[in-house]
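Journal club prep — side note

Before the paper discussion, L.F. wants everyone to see what a predicted structure for a comparable chain looks like in token form. Sequence:
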Amino acid sequence: MSNTQRWSLLVLAVVVLVVGYFVLRPKDDDDDATATTTVTQVVTTDGAQTSTTETPPPTTTTPTTTTKPTAPPKPQIQTIRVKDGQPVGGVKELDFDKGDTIAFKVSATAPGGEVHFHGYDIAKEIPESGGSVTYKVPATIEGIFEVEMEATGVQIAKVVVQP
């Protein structure tokens, strides 16, 4: 066996070991996801050069889906209906947390009159022909408050503001 043949076999053995290492090595999840290409040149006994190219398979990633945070639902404005000076269905209880917005609507048939929200001391006038008024107030005071038809003193709602 000639020197050239010995060197060729040695180079070939090194190439096989290097390629085998990259093909059979365990995959790390922490490996860089960039692809690398290995080019190996081999000189054969007749002096011809050949090259081998090895490209590892592409790394696949599972796409992650992100969900938009949903906005809290807008609070429904509860309506208190007043007919013939009395709350329809009885005194309505409205519960809120401190920091919320107290929001409710009072709808009355004739005769109208003043609707007074005690504690927050807000009064609004419903026309004599009937109509509605809407309250939107920051809940800054904790407690239990009465909403009444001021002229008759009839309670139509109880507003509870929790800490």
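L.F.'s comment for the group: The radius of gyration is 41 Å. Keep this in mind when we get to the figures.
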